[in-house]
Amino acid sequence: MSRIAYVNGRYLPARSATVHIEDRGYQFSDGVYEVCEVRGGAIVDQQRHMARLERSLAELRIRMPMSAGALAVVMRECVRRNRVREGIIYLQITRGVARRDHAFPPTATVPSVVVTARGLDFAGNERTAAEGIAVVTVPDNRWERVDIKSISLLPNVLAKQAAREQGAKEAWFVDSDGQVTEGSSSNAWIVTKDGKVVTRPADRGILRGITRTVLLDVIKAQGLELEERAFTAEEAYGAREAFVTSASQIVMPVVRIDDRPVGNGAPGLVATTLRAEFHRHAELS
Ligand code: PDD
Q1: How many beta carbons lie within 10 A of that of residue 43, not counting itself?
Q2: Which atom of ligand 1 is nearest to the CA of 212?
Q3: Whose CA is closest to atom 5 on ligand 1?
Q4: Is residue 182 within 6 Å of ligand 1 at its C-beta?
Q5: pTM (two decimals)
Q6: Of 160, 165, 183, 265, whose CB is crowded by the most CB atoms within 10 A?
Q7: pLDDT averaged over consecutive 10-residue blocks of the chain (285 residues)?
């Protein structure tokens, strides 16, 4: 079965789906994106992802090219046409096609919309979660507006590649004060020796992950103590547990940071419990 992509009003076989060479996403990374989990064929936390999408667009002064309702229909249709049960939807909106000029294009320029959906290896992800992943730390050299989910991801690309080359699955960015900000495509968490769950406040230093937001409810429901504060790589080395969160990985235990074992070097009880409980708190649509 060939994959189907939605591109500017049409559902096309992915291999023949293309965008214009003067699309501002292609030329300037002038656009935003969202990734939603698909579970049992349903879209997870779609409303929250749509709200963040609208915020990202507003921050960049890109107009919403269609209503949130119409976009929801397109997303559902992409899941259906690609027969995705467990996987992700990727949605990208750019400022559209215009002759190359850094400043905004004429106001009539129509934003470009691409939506794709694909299956993920559910059993493989569960096996990875049972083993836990390694992370490495890298300097955070991104711009100040990482709260916007922009497609401009070069530092994230380089960080993830650095992780791969060191046999790790994720890179944690560390700011100039030595504090961990977030992962290259995930939010970062630790559990202290006395059982407190710690994650950086969602200020402008990180993306406010939807998984992170839902997990705050799960943590409360589990009666765990939460501390929203920054932590250093050194504190993480000595933590009882560590984990990352994102739409594609939900809660993924971290068992090594910069080649040092975290806790006893195996996924911890808090991360494992939060992973198991997550979907009881997420919204399906
Ligand atoms: N990444 N921080 C960054 C830099 C991210 O790219 C992501 C998500 C997150 C977690 O956000 P959420 O919980 O809403 O997925 C945090 C997506 C999955 C990606 O780029 O593929």
Answers
A1: 23
A2: 13
A3: 185
A4: yes
A5: 0.97
A6: 183
A7: 94 96 98 98 97 98 95 98 98 98 97 98 97 98 98 98 98 98 98 98 94 98 98 98 98 98 97 98 93
